[in-house]
Amino acid sequence: MDLSRSAAAALDAADPLAPFRDRFVVADDDRLYLDGNSLGRLPRETPAALARVAEEQWGRGLVGSWSSWIGRATEIGDLLAAGVLGARAGEVMVSDSTSVDLYKLLVAGADARPGRDVLVCCADDFPTDRYLVAGVARARGMEVREVEAHIDEGLDLDVLAGALDERVAVVVLSAVAYRSGALPDLAAVTRLVHDAGALVLWDLSHAAGAVPVELEAIGADLAVGCTYKYLNGGPGAPAFLYVRRELQADLRQPIWGWFGQADQFAMGPAYDPAPGIERFAVGTPPVLAMAAVEVGARLVAEAGIERLAAKGRALTDLVVALADEWLVPHGVALASPRDAGRRGSHVSLAHPQAWQLTQALVDRGVVPDFRTPDRVRLGPAPLYTRFVDVWDALDRFRAVLVEGAHEACPTERSRVT
Predict the structure, then answer these.
(1) CATH class of the region 70-303
(2) Catalytic position from the list 228, 230, 240, 397
């Protein structure tokens, strides 16, 4: 592999996705943003989209605009289903936060498996997922089985299989590990869980918009995910949830809000859940925020998830190759799967002073993030990141190590990213 900067520039020149970079706000070309797996860049179209909703629909239309707003959660859900998630119309909606959506679907799934008293999750998954599983289990008198996973290589199917039996109701897993980027075989995991008679609830937060998930093809039951990472919906953007069509009528989520009611404006005395995906709604949707989600989702759909995934593999392969050549001699180790087919669109690098290195990189104009216990995480989002951005970032990383610039950085972690 040619590791010269000119080779990276040649990859950019041949990149069919290169024009998408111009459709995002890049305020400073010298600031190398490798944290798109935490917060995506601002699409140039988003401020105008927000202004249209605020000025025209809210400002002029006032309450009369609800006729166009009322179905936006499912309309944007259908856009995500077709362009991002490999799902069918009527299986996805924009709703609440990822945590709230996970709670709703976890409780609904557990209720749909009466007589089963075990919830399974991964010990290395994102903390909120594990906390929610523990909270639901405690409230319902259930048992939690936390499956161990390799911190760098991710979940082992044999280990998961050992945790599955006739007592398991729901298995909660991440499609891409938040720390290492490890990507399990989603179809194989789903089959394994189904063979045990349980439901699987996927967290797609680090997958949606970066890797194909093909929810219909793998027979997925339930899924949630955020829209502010690779989908570029903005800070605090609402999440999405997915429920396989064949399961919808049998599931009743625990937060009975009027937007999930069958005849919403009848204002009836008793809750009767709406048919279809709408039964998983709760309260008034965040209309302004959904306008931003729609812009990001359309960009991803236009780019094409297969092309995004291919570029993501190429970008992260370059990260790995440059790290091997430049950083490993200085004590850095790869902390993600080496095989790009087993990796999402981010790479983690381990070093005993990872926190200080992260701060030193920020000082040099490189924006990564830190993950415990000792990881520098690099997320070159394929929709707008160039190959020369990766090259320059790793070159600055090398300079920090050679110069020992990180030694002067504080050891105390003063912020959460």
Answers:
(1) alpha beta
(2) 228
Task: Identify the active-site residue in 203, 221, 369, 392.
Answer: 203
96 is catalytic: no
Among residues 229, 371, 396, 398, which one is catalytic?
229
311 included as an active-site residue: no
Query: What is the SS3 assignment for 115-174?
Result: CCCEEEEECCCCHHHHHHHHHHHHHHCCEEEEECCECCCECCHHHHHHCCCCCEEEEEEE
Query: What CATH number does domain 5-43+304-408 carry, 3.40.50.1260, 3.40.190.10, 3.90.1150.10, 3.40.630.30?
Result: 3.90.1150.10
Reply yes or no on whether 259 is catalytic.
no
Point out the catalytic residue in the list 126, 240, 280, 397: 126
294 CB contacts (<8 Å, ≥6 apart)? 49, 72, 76, 79
Residue 183 and residue 175 in contact, taking contact as beta carbons nearer than 8 Å: yes
**Residue 72: CA atoms inside 13 Å, Cβ hemisphere, count?**
20
Q: Domain limits of the chain?
A: 5-43+304-408, 70-303
**pLDDT tens-digit series, residues 143-188:** 999 999 999 999 999 999 999 999 999 999 999 999 999 999 999 9
Q: Going by DSSP bridges, is the β-strand pair 240-243/92-94 parallel, antiparallel, or unpaired?
A: antiparallel
Catalytic residue flag (residue 377): yes
**Among residues 180, 200, 181, which one has the least CA distance to residue 189?**
200
Residue 370 C-alpha from the chain's centroid: 17
Over residues 263-274, the pLDDT tens digits come to 989 999 999 999
Whether 23 is catalytic is no
- pLDDT, residue 417, reads 36
Handedness of CA 214, 220, 221, 226 (dihedral sign): negative
Task: Tell me what the pLDDT averaged over the chain comes to.
Answer: 96
Note the pTM of the prediction, 2 decimals: 0.96
What number is the average pLDDT over the span 124-136? 97
- Reported as type and span, the H/E element at residue 67 is helix 66-69
Determine the Cα–Cα distance for residues 54 and 58; give it in Å rounded to an integer: 5
The Cβ-side half-sphere exposure at 73, using a 13 Å CA radius, reads 26
Name the catalytic one among 41, 116, 313, 377. Answer: 377
